[in-house]
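Final report, Chapter 2: Outcomes

The project's central promise was a pipeline that accepts a single protein chain and returns its three-dimensional structure in a standardized token representation, suitable for archiving and comparison. That pipeline is now operational. To close this chapter, we reproduce one record exactly as it appears in the project archive, with the input sequence first and the structure output second.
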Amino acid sequence: MSINGILNVFKPSGKTSFDVVSFVRRLSGERRVGHAGTLDPAATGVLPVCLGQGTRVIEFMSGAPKTYSAQIELGIVTDTYDATGKVIQECNPSFVTKEDVENALESFCGPIQQIPPMYSAIKHHGKRLYQLARLGIDIPRKPREVHIFRAQLLAWCPPVFTVEVECSSGTYIRSLAHDIGLTLGCGACLKTLIRLVCGPFDVSQAITLTGLEEAFHNGYWESFLYPIDEVLLNWDAIVVDEIHEEAIIHGRSIPLEELSCHSSDSQSDHCRVYSTKGDLLAVLCWREDENLWHPDKVFSSAANLAEGLQD
């Protein structure tokens, strides 16, 4: 039986995100398993793991804002921008004050241009940058625009401080730590990192790998499985009749006058569609040039409905 949904897993330090996916695949027996939002091996915290039909909404989770708790150490620069790397520069940071750090954090709030670290999974001519970095090859990286919504100093224990960062997808906290060190004139690297929030998932509700293993072995794992539409709840929702169900299931677009949820106030060009029985049928995408809603993702439950409609 296919398992469809999303698990909010707490990734431990020392495991890759792919390690967690493999672990969940083995426990569940579900072949289609993927994660939304890679965490570095040393990082911990929220890792949404999607199963079955849930893997089809990963792309919609990729842009979700995230919140991190980061310990940053002043006076140390490493080649990876974090504590796992080789130290390439040291400096006495005793001249840096708490106020200096707060001002630096404030300067990084808002839209910023950020250069990804060389030790990252970004591809260059088919090779991951970290693979090239391990060979001693440095590739110029283009800056990317990311958004720091909030950077709040939580603890000041020099030379280490703790900051909570709420940011857009694509933000490298390692690069942020490195850039803060440059701004302060003493260098810095990321010491520890915990992802607190990823989209609708919070670390306080995340299940550990040990807890998940016990849940599968004892048959209560479903209590930790979120429905697929958990990550789509910020979109408009539509309930359609059987005629529209059949049209959507067979990939036909729906005219604006028949589905009128799209308006100038809409926050997205997508919406979620349900049957009158409450089943998630599909994700629709708004095509402005055609003035139509077009099925973007049609879920397997809809296929079962299609059989019923044809009986």
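Archive annotation: DSSP finds eight helices and 19 strands in the chain.
This record, like all others produced under the grant, will remain available to the consortium after the project formally closes.
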